[in-house]
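Why do we care about 3D structure at all? Because function follows from shape, and shape follows, mostly, from sequence. That is the central idea of this module. The next example makes it concrete: a single protein chain, its amino acid sequence, and then its structure expressed as tokens.
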Amino acid sequence: MLKFVKNYMDSISGIEIFPIISLLIFFSFFVILFWWVFTAKKDYINKVSNMPLDNQNDDIS
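And the structure:
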């Protein structure tokens, strides 16, 4: 099965750019994510992390 896919992919011209584009998208997403995590304000992180524990907004009847 893999030999069939490899032979089929070799016949497509210009396909070698797609793995490079995928790697760049993957790498840039995680670089941006790490940058956001390290630059996020501590107050915002605390507020968002306490949201599931905040029961004051729930109306229990």
